[in-house]
């Protein structure tokens, strides 16, 4: 019996015993409960599995539940998001991503993006939809409030926006890295029709995307470097860092920093003028 098997058995048992049947609206039983929490029969009924299956799991008898069974157990036991992830890790399964990815920024993250000024920053979901941004980012790229929601997507801007697509000095590398991220996201979110339609739009609307998408590169960059040819500030270089919020793991916080003194001066000049304030939007 492995350590993970022993821990899985103990974890399922303790989560079952901490639940109050009355809180779950379960019918009362004539026979008094000798142990706290739910009976194995009740967990089995809630999860849609046999009682024997629950018994074998709690006895550590070498079962490896499927991802569907793990999800059913997590719901039956009313596990928190952290506990759910722990259960999936114990069973060596991969949890399904949410069917409806975030299209708005959680208020704490939106405030954080604002607080990161004077560094340009944005919050995106897995398909590069912009969920929140600050004033400095609008100065560096574009006033996102002037764009329809369907165009508030970092990849769309890079590929199809008539001005932004010319910003990047090394556009091929930027597009290639973005496509490698999108392919990884596409495999992780197979039921995201919006992402699938977005990829189809890029494939038909941009020859470079179609060519590079066919190469099937997969990569997720946590940091990097970009050189921009800004119409108002000339050439400036930025480094970027990508952070994943623990409570919103399908979102990414992207922070840009000037890569050198000349780029810092250029960004300072850009942000010194009047312009749009920080914004939060749905993509």
UniProtKB/TrEMBL annotation:
<protein>
    <submittedName>
        <fullName>Transcriptional regulator with XRE-family HTH domain</fullName>
    </submittedName>
</protein>
<dbReference type="Pfam" id="PF13560">
    <property type="entry name" value="HTH_31"/>
</dbReference>
<dbReference type="Pfam" id="PF17765">
    <property type="entry name" value="MLTR_LBD"/>
</dbReference>
<dbReference type="InterPro" id="IPR041413">
    <property type="entry name" value="MLTR_LBD"/>
</dbReference>
<dbReference type="InterPro" id="IPR001387">
    <property type="entry name" value="Cro/C1-type_HTH"/>
</dbReference>
<feature type="domain" description="HTH cro/C1-type">
    <location>
        <begin position="30"/>
        <end position="84"/>
    </location>
</feature>
<dbReference type="InterPro" id="IPR010982">
    <property type="entry name" value="Lambda_DNA-bd_dom_sf"/>
</dbReference>
